[in-house]
Amino acid sequence: MEPAALRSLVEAMAPDGETIVARLFRALREGVRSGQLEPGVVLPSSRRAAAALGVSRNSVVAAYELLRAEGLVAVDGRRAPVVARVERLADPVGAAGEGPALSARGAIRCRDPRAGLYAHASGRFRPGAPDEPLFPRDVWARALRRAARTPLGPMRAYEDYAGVPVLRRALADHLRRERGLVVAPDEVVVTGSAQASLSLLAACLCDPGETVLIEEPGYLGARAAFEGADLRPAPIPVDEAGADIDAVSCRAGARLAYVTPSNQYPLCTRMSLPRRAALIAWARAERATIVEDDYDGEFHWRGQEAGAMQPLAPDAVVYLGSAAKSLLPALRVGWLVAPRPLAAALAHAVRNAGCAANVHAQLALAELIESGAWKLHLRRVTRVYETRARLLMEAIRAAAGDRVEVALPPGGLQLAVRMENLADEATAVAGLGAAGWAVARLSGFSTREAPPAGLLVSFAEADGPRARAFAAALGRALAPA
Question: Of the four listed, 19, 111, 235, 426, which is most buried by Cβ atoms within 10 Å?
């Protein structure tokens, strides 16, 4: 324990009006008994403690002796006292209160929208997580080392909050080539994640109390971002042709619509071209904004002709992406593409919100894109994920038969396993959770009274043995009693 920490403890836990010996003794006693000072912590020597507290050394020695007499510290010769192992008080005298309370808005922002969603808290096949062994560690490490040695210039401080220029150029080129976007480098804004981008847009494009449209069922992170900004989400029904704006009765006056058109989350369907055109027509008529989340647009192996929505209406669509699925969520790099005036304004909002991505991670990603290493990595993992998706789909069909409905998704990292009713879903979730599989309840993504029943299952880790083991566990869970 450092002397400065001892001084803070005395000032915080010991009342004024007592002698320094009593104050020091009381503060340390309560610190030990409350667990704030854990067993084995070495206290400052009497000389250092006296200097920090501005008192005589004899006063400190006297307080330490009182603590030793109560068995709270151990003193071995001339060594500094060490906190002893004692029974922690359930309600220590003078204990602090619970601390600041959340505001009503804070309670919404701090709520976990995914609570109770997963069958197992940390098991395999959890939706949204790529397979970590596929991460190109050596390539990333070399790029990161070079980034760390790069002189940063203005980037070292508070410049380039829209993203480092080299990454914005690289992303613009990549998105034009691979996803068909209409984009210039100064229309790219780099953030810490797609979730950060959503929170940023919710705060900057809408005022509290306004309505936003969100797919039903839909991505819980988007709902959390909008509700956290004090907005009112309204559902856009989703079927096999994607989100249907024509089925929304309260669409007039909505300021924003959030969709996942290339691979709907969580139903794994694709929005048809007529549906896309209808949504764009609505947005232009209402002067609203479409937020297109292309969350795993890099992984597409079926129906390649369906690209992003942004090229159809670059004036009305804000496009979101990230490196979370293609590399790792832990890298914390995302981006959005917005019309130039909005992108310039959002750059200031990124700084104000503190949601910028790490500069070295940005430089490393830019190198991977410009060198072609990212494209090679995407080709490799796309083949792997397509193979694993087929393995898992076929294993589930073989094990569960007509009790479930499962189809190969157009891409992404997960597939939807449909079931007839919520009772089957509950049975499957209980059985799979007990076996250690972290799949999600399909009904958990919906707010309807009669939500779709089934599972959302990641196939990122689904090699042959794991796919068969999961399918067997699902078959056992659904087997008639």
Answer: 235
